[in-house]
Amino acid sequence: MRLILFGPPGAGKGTQASALVDRYGIVHISTGDIFRENVGNETELGLQAKRYMDAGDLVPDELVIAMVSDRLGQDDARDGFLLDGFPRTVAQVEALDDIVAAQGHALDAVIRLIVDDDELVARLLQRAREQGRSDDTREVIANRLANYRAETEPAVTAYRERGILHDVDGEGDVAEVRERVLVAAAQAEDTG
Ligand code: ADP
User: Fold this and answer.
1) What is the tens place of the pLDDT at every residue in 22-31?
2) What is the pLDDT of residues 36-92, one digit of tens each?
3) Is 13 a catalytic residue?
4) Which atom of ligand 1 is found nearest the CA of 33?
């Protein structure tokens, strides 16, 4: 299975990713996690990405695309993957299509978690209190949500047109949402 978990910051992508990777035995590739790891290790990539992340801006496409292309070329991603936090722009959608096509495959499904803005802000502020992530401040959260609506949400159109977009209600408790996500993935598997 080649899956994308799509949705705004705070929608629960990271939380729900684990159910999908367990169910399908695929690798979880979170661009946010890879960037945070690079920031923590003070790599060149981390140094370049940090200022965008801290402001809640998107890291430039060339950097993200090169990183994901490299990651998808590794052995453990050959038979399937779950992308979380990528693609986030129209250019990233196109680049991913090229990468997957070059490997002789196609994407199976895009599962989008739908959560309204008030709930997202509440969850992100809660996470700020619990984990102290540097981009979970009220101001930066507002910018991340605005960028999601302006740049990321329109990028999903290509997947809707292809008939591989599955919208899932992301509100409710974690177990309920997990069940909906697994049902959507199973439907994609049947039709794929
Ligand atoms: P969230 O979805 O909660 O905003 P992530 O952990 O997915 O957070 O990403 C954190 C930050 O990493 C983003 O705000 C952005 O700066 C950067 N980032 C992650 N993925 C991408 C991407 N595909 N394109 C551009 N920037 C990205």
Assistant:
1) 999 999 999 9
2) 999 999 999 999 999 999 999 999 999 999 999 999 999 999 999 999 999 999 999
3) yes
4) 6
| The one catalytic residue among 2, 36, 144, 180 | 144
DSSP calls for 75-122 = GGGTT-EEEES---SHHHHHHHHHHHHHTT----EEEEEE--HHHHHH
User: Which tokens hold the place of 156?
Assistant: 């999903």
E strands present in the chain: 2-6, 27-30, 81-84, 109-114, 165-169
User: What pTM was computed for the model?
Assistant: 0.94
Collapsing DSSP to helix, strand or coil, 148 comes out as helix
Q: Does 133 qualify as catalytic in the annotation?
A: yes
The minimum-distance atom of ligand 1 relative to the CA of 10 is 3
What is the chain's mean pLDDT, rounded? 95
84 Cα: distance to centroid of ligand 1 (angstroms): 9
50 is annotated as an active-site residue: no
Residue 183 alpha carbon to ligand 1 centre in Å: 26
